Amino acid sequence: MKREIFFKDLGLRSYKEIWDLQEILLKQNVERKTTDDGRQSTVNHLLFVEHHPVYTLGKSGKEEHVLINEETLRQKGIEYFHINRGGDITFHGPQQLVGYPILDLDKFKTDLGWYLRNLEQVMIDTMAEYGLKGDRSKGETGVWIDVGIKGRERKICAMGIKCSRWITMHGFAFNVNTDLSYFDFIVPCGIQNKQVTSLQKELGHTVHMNEVKEKVKRNFEKVFDAIIL
Fold it and tell me: Which superfamily, per CATH, for 3-228?
């Protein structure tokens, strides 16, 4: 029997608002796990959102990977949060598809490596529909292009997660028509000397966000053997 995942497209929202929403959904699921029903009563969610410009630094990230000061951040209208996911610094902004799966891995597989590889596979399969070869980079989470060509490696999808009692939060950030100039002010994911790219840059034209969302949803269902409602 396929697992059910409840989907919601939240549109363009502030980062803190959706971070708070994720915390609420995670807390509800953790509380459900303490009931007699246990994992049977937990609810799986998949949230899609675009954020107003924001940099987020993971719990193991380094402050020096933000290359501009607070005053410059304010002038450019970029928010900044030190948050509770894994990973280092990344950017979220308009025309970037951010996905937040709030999943009970007890209903899937209690293995974070498996979970991250599945998230990567969703994006790899989506890129393939656009004729692009996405790949993994050894020791680095996310999805890349031209991984094996030194100096040409470029990241198209960043990932960072948190898991509490096998309930996940945070997720992936897929550059669709993203303004890549925002990445000039950080060391993306704490990785030196590697580029960042987008679907738009790779294809040479703007891509419709709703089209990308539908492809990602369909591939998420396939990879996670689930039904998205």
Answer: Bira Bifunctional Protein; Domain 2 (3.30.930.10)
